[in-house]
Every structure is written in C-alpha cells, then in structure tokens.
Amino acid sequence: MLNGLLINYNFCTGCHSCEMACKVEHGYQEGEWGIKLTQQGPDLVKEDTWEFNFIPTPTDRCDLCADRVKEGRLPTCVHHCQGLCMQYGPVDELAKQMTSSHMVLFVPCEE
C-alpha cells in the first residue's frame, strides 16, 4: 500500500507549524526544510479584493516521517497542523477526497 499526503490549501492558515514540527523532528538546521511553507500573494483579484494563499510543499528531504509511521504515528506535519488541512493515508483513498483545485496529493518517490 502506497501512502501519501493530501494538502487542502483552502484551509492552510500560514501558521508554519508544519515547518517547525518537521525541523524539530528531524533536527534540520537553518535553511534546511522537510516541508516548506510558501506564501503566494497578495494578489489583487478585483478592486478591493486581495487573495493570499499559503502553500506547504514537501521537499526532497520529506520521507513522510517513515520512522514515525512505522511506530503507528502520523507524520509530524500532519500531527501538528493547526489548520487541519493535511491528511495522511493510502493514496487511492486520499485521491477520492480531492474535491477542490486547491488540493494537492504528494507521494514520496521511492528510490
């Protein structure tokens, strides 16, 4: 069974808790990331209407916390997500939950 990470950007608040939890869990130094939060915007959509998007993106270092998952725990980014915008589980099940263009399913590459 192949597991992945489903992120719904509609609910990401930009709190950076996924980034920080990942850095602490893996001991990453300044400038190193397992998951990186990017801010898109502000973009002027129409007069007096601005759009901000916060986009958590796993980097090449992300292994979806393989050690934590082996212990029956969630990846640390999912566990600590304050916006509850991340889900971890079987890719086929997560794919069925993709109902918005602001949702992305990440699957780690196997070497």
Characterise this structure:
This protein has helices at residues 17-26, 66-70, 76-80, 91-96; strands spanning 3-8, 35-46, 49-58, 86-90, 103-106. It is globular, with a radius of gyration of 15 Å. The chain has one domain (3-98): Alpha-Beta Plaits. The chain is built from four helices and five strands. A hairpin with a 2-residue loop joins β2 and β3. The model has no long low-confidence stretch (mean pLDDT 92). By secondary structure, it is α+β, with helices and mostly antiparallel strands.
Q: Mean pLDDT, rounded to whole units?
A: 92
Low-confidence stretches: none
CATH architecture type: 2-Layer Sandwich
What's the count of strands? 5
Total of domains: 1
In angstroms, what is the radius of gyration? Answer: 15 Å
> Residue share in helices?
10-25%
- Any idea what the shape is? globular
Q: What is the CATH class designation?
A: Alpha Beta
Main location: other
InterPro entries: 4Fe4S_Fe-S-bd, FDH_Electron_Transfer_Unit
Organism: Raoultibacter timonensis
Keywords: 4Fe-4S, Iron, Iron-sulfur, Metal-binding, Repeat
Write the layout of secondary structure elements.
Elements: E1 3-8, H1 17-26, E2 35-46, E3 49-58, H2 66-70, H3 76-80, E4 86-90, H4 91-96, E5 103-106
Antiparallel strand pairs: 1-4, 1-5, 2-3
